Amino acid sequence: MTVTNNNPLVRPATEADTGPLIGVLAEAFHDGPLAEWLIPDPDERRTVYYRYFRDALHHGMTHGQVHTTADQTAVAIWYPRLEPAPTDTRERLAALERITGVYAPKFVLLEELFDAFHPDTPHHYLAYLAVDPSRQNRGIGATLLADHHRRLDDFGLPAYLEASNMRNRRLYLRHGYTAGPTIALPTDGPIIWRMWRGAPTTSGGRTPFPHPRPRRRSL
């Protein structure tokens, strides 16, 4: 069955959802070029990803907007970025070292690059969109996107995200995003696409993909 964007299955996530949604995030992102670059060993990756996405989900619940489905098989984590967000670099570095262990250098580098290239224009940032692998290709991710896009359009706000593979890139293009300059990860790492969905009132304006900012985290 195909889930349509009019299906009323999207709701705010609650603390009771955190266990299932951590699993959804860890499994949905377990495979792919970015995952293989971050942690080559798939068994190690599953263990570290569970810790990493547990932290990501709890951070989203505290500081962002987290939405899920009635059956807890999908999750979207959004952050309102109406002004540049300050970063406690030492605290984040310590957290990544604690969470990812020997793999911390690549996780730190990835977050540094995402931070350095992040637009300053007010927007909402889609940090993660995940669907349980057994429920993919049914339009559930598209439903989560459309639900939040309607709210953004009501307030005239754009959206920004990073796509880590061609499949996701095609999904976001279908939902009104424009692909900007890429981020090339070092040591044979994958390409990351920076993607922007303009506000509905925007016509012909320049897409705000910045050059790297000097204010970055330090290794």
TrEMBL record:
Domain of life: Bacteria
Pfam families: Acetyltransf_1 (PF00583)
Domain N-acetyltransferase, chain residue ranges per copy: 8-198
Keyword Transmembrane helix attributed: no
Keywords: Transferase
Family matches, as InterPro entries: Acyl_CoA_acyltransferase (IPR016181), GNAT_dom (IPR000182), Trichothecene_AcTrans (IPR052523)
GO molecular function: acyltransferase activity, transferring groups other than amino-acyl groups
Protein's recorded name: N-acetyltransferase
Organism whose genome encodes this protein: Micromonospora radicis
